[in-house]
Each structure stands twice: as C-alpha cells, then as structure tokens.
C-alpha cells in the first residue's frame, strides 16, 4: 500500500494492485480515516435510531441481523481520489496527495437502511438522515466525532446498506466494524464507519464533515465558513489508467492498457476511449462485464506503440452522454475534491 499517513491510517493500493481484481481484496482496499480507529465491542455495540420517527430504536448487532440480508457490489470512491492531479496545478497544503487508488470495490452484505427506518416509523417530513460515529477527528474545530448525512430519498433506496460483511468476511476494524453505512454511488465520506446513531431530521447533518469538509468551493474562496460551497453527494464520472504505470518502459509493439471507470449516482459508464498520442486520436476500449449497477467498470484495450515516448490518455462517457472534463486546471478547488479530469500516463517504448 502507499501509506499517506500512519496515524490515523490513510493508504491506497498502487495502480498495479488495484488492477488485479475487479472486486478489491480487503487487504488491498483503500483506507480513509479522519481519526484514531475505534475498537468497538460487538457485544455491547448498539445502533440508536431517533429523530423524526414514531418509535426510537436501540438495536443490538443480533437484532440488526434479524432484518432481511441483502448483498450489493459497490464501489467506494473518496472525494479526494486523484487529488495529486490537482496538486500539480496548484498546491493544497495539509491534504493527502491521493493517487488513482482512493477507490475500491467490495461485495457488502447487511440490512437495508430503508427497512430499519421503516421499522422505526420514519416520518414523512424527515428530509435528511444523519449518521454519527465515535471516532474523533482532530481536523474538526474543535475536534469532534465523525458524521454526515444523506437525503431521505437516497437513504430509503434499496442499495443503501448497514453492512457487517465485506467480501464474505466480517468487517475489519479499519473498514468500520461492527457495522458501517454503505451509500453506493455517493462519495465515500457518506459511508460512515462504526455507525452508532441514525437520526431522521429536517436538515443535513451539522457535522464538520457535512458542513465544512467535503464541499466544493470556488478557487478563490480562502476563508470558508460552515455551509459555504456545495455539499458533495453523488460521485462525479471518473476514470483512471491502471496499466501501464506512469513512467513505464516497455518493448515497442502491442501494449495492453487497462483501467477503471465509475459513473457514480445512478449513472452508468457507457464508453471509454483511449489515446496513445495525448488525445489527438482515440480508440474505443472494451468494457468488462458489469458487476452491478453500483460498481466501477474495468476496461481494456491494446495499443500499438512505436518506439519512443507516448502520452496515453483515457476518457469515460456516462449514460447521460456526459464526458469527463479534459484538464485538472479547469476544476481545481481549495480542498482538492473530485479531480475527474482525463487520466494520462507517460511511457517509453523501446526497440
Ligand atoms: N467513517 C468514520 N466514522 N470515520 C471516517 O474517518 N471516512 C470516510 C468514510 N467513513 C470515515 C468514515 C471517508 S472520507 C471515506 S472515503 C470512506 O469512509 C473510506 O472507507 P474505507 O476506509 O473503508 O475505504
Ligand atoms: Mo473520503
């Protein structure tokens, strides 16, 4: 793993490791933590459900597991994925320089959040569902527990889970044991780990990570106040080249190029183009089989590389016919979120 910080642990797999499996093994799955990992005792863990509900619930792990089990294959993608490409445009002090690996895909099993909310008698006037966790984030001012919220519309969609299984194994501590929220298609920040409380309310969460972090600010916004900018929800259309790696030196001739593309929200990736000449001419890549509506799509193509230097570029299109933006400079923002510019790698082909 490429470790950006040991404590709290923040790490991403190198491109070559991510490329190996469309379902990312747990040891390879990126880790994004804002505070020290809490070690919760599953026997004593309780999930409180409160706010705009007819009946407050306090569920043990066994009680949660009595709800119907559902499996969803979902990609998580941090809003800071590919931030390194924004740092190359203009520095962003104090933020991890994530490469293309702050995203991974797993098979999650859990109860539907919708079923738990229905059991509590969710009231019709609740517009947002907030999640609270016990880990304390020093970057909040003052230091505060992690949390966030999603709209009730998303929270009651069938893909949103309270998950306790990841790739067939109980969740590990780093990924949120005993139970985390999984919000497919939305930025990773909303998939709250170690969730302990779910609150139905009239407004988004007041938590630092809803009101101050994970918001898109205009480039000249130097001193943001809570609530400024746009709250990030669905993941933007994005892609990365995983093979060959940046700076690779290979023998000239047919060269396999592979990567991922992810559309976020309820959009799908419908086409990926790859260029060997910096974007002057394009070849359509083949898309691997779909893993489900909420997962990335691996793609591949073979380019004929003549001896010399080549700039390989990719670009994805989604089911709304949207295309990724070309340059990171056009989307630079003060916290370095959603860099979904065309990925490029420079390689050298030798005789
Ligand atoms: N939940 C808690 N309680 N604390 C956190 O720091 N990080 C969030 C989210 N859930 C976080 C959290 C962010 S920003 C992301 S991208 C995902 O978890 C990362 O999930 P992972 O570490 O399992 O990959
Ligand atoms: Mo994130």
State the helicity in percent bands: under 10%
Secondary-structure arrangement, i.e. CATH architecture of the largest domain: Alpha-Beta Complex
- Average pLDDT metric: 97
- Spans with pLDDT under 50 lasting ≥5 residues? none
Oligomer: single chain
Structural class computed from helices and strand pairing = mainly beta
Using the CA coordinates, give the radius of gyration.
21 Å
Shape: globular
CATH superfamily of the largest domain: Oxidoreductase, molybdopterin-binding domain
Task: Describe the main β-sheet briefly.
Answer: 5 strands, mixed
Query: How many distinct folded domains?
Result: 2
The level-1 CATH class of the largest domain = Alpha Beta
- Which strands sit side by side, in order, in the main sheet? 4-3-12-7-8
User: Strand share of the residues?
Assistant: 35-45%
Please, could you describe this protein's structure?
This protein is mainly beta. The chain has 2 domains: 2-231, Oxidoreductase, molybdopterin-binding domain (Sulfite Oxidase, Chain A, domain 2, Alpha-Beta Complex); 238-350, Sandwich (Immunoglobulin-like). The chain is 8% helix and 37% strand. It has helices at 15-18, 61-64, 84-87, 113-120, 152-155, 208-211; strands at residues 2-5, 10-12, 47-51, 57-59, 69-77, 103-112, 128-137, 144-151, 161-166, 169-170, 180-182, 197-201, 215-216, 230-231, 238-243, 249-251, 253-262, 269-275, 283-284, 286-287, 297-305, 308-318, 344-350. A 5-stranded mixed sheet has the order 4-3-12-7-8. Strands 5, 6, 9, 10 and 11 form a 5-stranded antiparallel sheet that branches. A 5-stranded mixed sheet has the order 16-23-22-18-19, with no helix packed on it. Strand 18 (269-275) and strand 19 form a beta hairpin. The relative contact order is 0.16. The mean pLDDT is 97. Bound molecules: ligand MTE and molybdenum atom. Ligand MTE is lined by residues 29-34, 76, 78, 133, 135, 146, 175, 188-189, 191-194.
